[in-house]
Amino acid sequence: MALTINLFVHGVPMGQKIWGCTGDDLKYIETFYGPSYKTAEQMIVEAKSLGGSTNCYYTYIKSQNVLASDGRAGAYIALTLKINMYYTDVVNMYNVLKAAFDKMLVGSVVKTQGDNTKFCIQDFKQVDSQLKEIEQAVVDYLMKFSDNNDLCSLSGIAANGNMAAECINILESDVNKCLQLMKRSGKLAVSNLFPTSQVKTVLAQKETEIQNLKTQCQTQIDTVNQQKQVEVQGLKQQLNQADANTKRQLDALNKKYAEELERLRHRSPVPPVGEIRTDGPYNYYSSKRKSGLSYRLIATFVNTILLLIIILMLLFMRPGKNKSQSDEIPWAETVETDNAVRSNSIVKTEVAASKQIQSNPANSTNNDTTKIKK
């Protein structure tokens, strides 16, 4: 079988641009725009059956810190070799494409700005002749320095595999290992930035330790959470019990208040003064009336004594016993007559006062006092 080699150059100088590619190959190359890649640079080897033919594609790609011609980030630059056979010396192919990029693309297509790689052009058509020279140089090198041992048929290679490409450090990319991977999955990726097997083992151990620590921490967290949940439930129960006790006490107070209020509502009202009973032990108006009766009895008794005194005085002052005095004093009879009239008047007055006291006991004391003064 005659060996055919084609070079495709693609990237994002101003939107995705592709050089040297047509037909079904174009659809495959377009898939490189968009995905994220694990390292800044790598070579992806993939067997594809497109348009009725099977080929192996070797793509050297720089995908990190690449800027478009206008300075926008997120661009990429790649060289893809399409070979109708499987080139077994993957390490040599990696070195060839890397040298072509570093020696021939840098300066004409892209330039280095610190840690970044920036496009110098907006379209690969601007450097069409330079790209053709790069393609010819790569083909000449492979034809010159390759033999039949470096090439094998694609009949035993899995094409269009759906498995993810296994990443291999370039130092461990020996021929047999890569061939077995291509037969199994039809895809692999190599780079000097990928970790070696030893580093992968250490990383796997550390990952296992990290997972164990995470599991232990999660277990401890779960245990503490359970304990705290139990404590929280206990506090909630105590709070609910306290609320229930408070509610019971409040209900009891409300009940007691309602009973007291009902008792006060049904209590007998104070009757009018005219209806006050005099036999109640705690009746204010009854005691007042009894006091008024006592004052009236005292006044009556005093008036009776005074009346008796006046009557005795009148008896002792009769005219027969004082005849000598009347003879001796010409105006004595007149005086006695006046005294008799005055005594009758006083008696009438006392009788009237007694009747008034009986009818109005409240003023009896004042009336008696007035009579005494007279």
How is this structure best described in words?
The chain is of the alpha+beta class. The chain folds into three domains: 5-194, no CATH class; 196-237; 287-373. The chain is 53% helix and 16% strand. The protein is built from nine helices and twelve strands. A seven-stranded mixed beta sheet has the order 2-1-6-4-3-12-11, with helices on both faces. Strands 5-9-8 form a three-stranded mixed beta sheet, with no helix packed on it. Strands 7-10 form a two-stranded antiparallel ribbon. Helix 2 (90-105) packs antiparallel against helix 3 (128-145), helix 6 (284-316) runs antiparallel to helix 8 and helix 8 (332-359) runs antiparallel to helix 9. It is rod-shaped and about 190 Å long. The chain starts with a strand and ends with a helix. The model is unreliable at 321-332 and 361-374 (pLDDT under 50).
What profile does the largest beta sheet have?
7 strands, mixed
Query: What distance lies between the first and last C-alpha atoms, to the nearest angstrom?
Result: 171 Å
Gyration radius, in Å: 68 Å
Number of helices: 9
Strand order of the largest sheet: 2-1-6-4-3-12-11
Average pLDDT confidence is 82
How do the SSEs run, as a string of H and E? Answer: EEHEEEEEHEEHEEHEHHHHH
Q: Quote the beta fraction.
A: 15-25%
Q: What is the overall shape?
A: rod-shaped
Low-confidence parts, pLDDT < 50 over ≥5 residues? Answer: 321-332, 361-374
- Structural class from helices and strands? alpha+beta
List the domain count as a whole number: 3
Helical percent range?
40-55%
Number of strands: 12
